[in-house]
Amino acid sequence: MKRLLFVAALLSILLVVGCGSEAPFGSDGSPTTNVSGESVTVPGGTYTRVSAEELKAMLESEDFPLVNVHIPFEGDIPDTDLSIPYDEIGHNLDRLPGKGTKIVLYCRSGSMSTEAARRLVQLGYENVWELEGGMNAWRAAGYRLEGT
User: Fold this and answer.
1) How many degrees, rounded to 5, is the angle at CA 31 between CA 26 and CA 37?
2) Sign of the CA dihedral with 135 first, then 136, 137, and 143 last
3) C-alpha distances in Å from residue 143, one per residue of 17, 48, 53, 102, 136
4) Residues 6+ apart with CB under 8 A from 115
5) What stretches of 19-133 show up as alpha helix (H) in DSSP?
6) Which residues pair with 42 in a beta bridge?
7) How crowded is residue 117: how many other Cβ atoms within 10 Å of its Cβ?
8) How far apart are CA 32 and CA 94, in angstroms?
9) Residue 33: helix, strand or coil by DSSP?
10) 107 classed as catalytic
11) Of the residues 50, 69, 107, 128, which is catalytic?
12) What is the pLDDT of residue 3?
């Protein structure tokens, strides 16, 4: 009977330890985020739309260029890497990483970044992400902008 209780206790401990909620880590040792977003189908493929909260989580382990495509300039989300006008994105491909690398786009309200995301997908980019609602949604979620 003692042996049975010991085995039951051991199995319970293993179950609790095995179901722990450790964050996964990337190849550089930093925590990764598990943001799935919403898949948007457009001619030529898909891109992923994320909320301000999801982008905030992604920025904690930024492994992508964050690109402001809004014109005229109305500020940046912190950690923005590039500013490329939405209607010139196709003429600035040399400033972007390879077609399989994650790229996150945003603008003020979402309309310009949607246009830029569609264009990149048409050009063969396979890992395009876009902030739904743009800087307006970012501010509404309580996050700050720079340069305003």
Assistant:
1) 90
2) positive
3) 36, 21, 9, 22, 10
4) 86, 87
5) 52-59, 111-122
6) 45
7) 29
8) 27
9) coil
10) yes
11) 107
12) 54
pLDDT at position 16, please?
37
- Distance between CA atoms of residues 55 and 53, nearest Å: 5
Q: How far apart are CA 74 and CA 93, in angstroms?
A: 23
Q: Are strands 38-42 and 45-50 parallel, antiparallel or unpaired?
A: antiparallel
SS3 for 66?
strand
51 token code pair: 């909320």
Strand, helix or coil for residue 108: coil
Closest CA to 135 of 59, 76, 84, 83: 76
Closest CA to 58 of 106, 126, 97, 123: 106
- pLDDT the model gives residue 62: 82
C-alpha angle with apex 134: 118 to 27, nearest 5 degrees? 75
Tokens of 57: 């989580």
Using CA atoms, how far apart are residues 2 and 95, in angstroms rounded to an integer? 68
Report the candidate in 127, 14, 20, 5 with the shortest Cα–Cα distance to residue 65: 127
Within 10 A of 68 (CB to CB), how many other CB atoms are there? Answer: 27
Residues lower than pLDDT 50 in the chain: 4-32
